[in-house]
TrEMBL record:
Its main location: cytoplasm. Pfam families: YbeY. The gene is ybeY. This is Endoribonuclease YbeY. GO terms for biological process: rRNA processing. One of its GO terms (cellular component) is cytoplasm. Belongs to the endoribonuclease YbeY family. Its EC number is 3.1.-.-. The keyword Hydrolase applies. It comes from Methylobacterium terricola.
Amino acid sequence: MSRPETHEIDVAVEDPRWEEVAPDLEAFVAEAVEAALAIVPPGGPIEISIVLTDDPAVQELNRTWRGKDKPTNVLSFPNEQPHGGGPRLLGDVVLAYDTLLRESGEQSKPLDHHLAHLVVHGTLHLLGHDHELGDAEADAMEALEVAALRRLGVPDPYGDAAG
């Protein structure tokens, strides 16, 4: 009998304002990661780290790793190390509270829906998807995001109702 895949999803809350987004924030974030993994199976157990922080921390990471001296909503850092034993280390996803709060207001979306979307988005990046490679890849990634979000009961963030 085969053992079901178990994923290790580490959630670090560096900004306490995140705690107001969902009653059980860590479970909420883990569920969003699992929804992405259900749509794009990683081929075995994985370990992923989700960091919920603020704009200054994300701005520093964006400046250091991407040469862009501004905050952004989500950054993904895939693990480049070879896979040894145990779960494959997928990488890290870092989200900025201030930017997500602003964007959710501008787009008239609940903050928890926007968080779920960007956790899914970041997880898909770690799984090898990249919307910046062209329109076809962007469309494919959007379709995967919508499918994962549907599993969570989150409306299509790209649809007409998205604002």
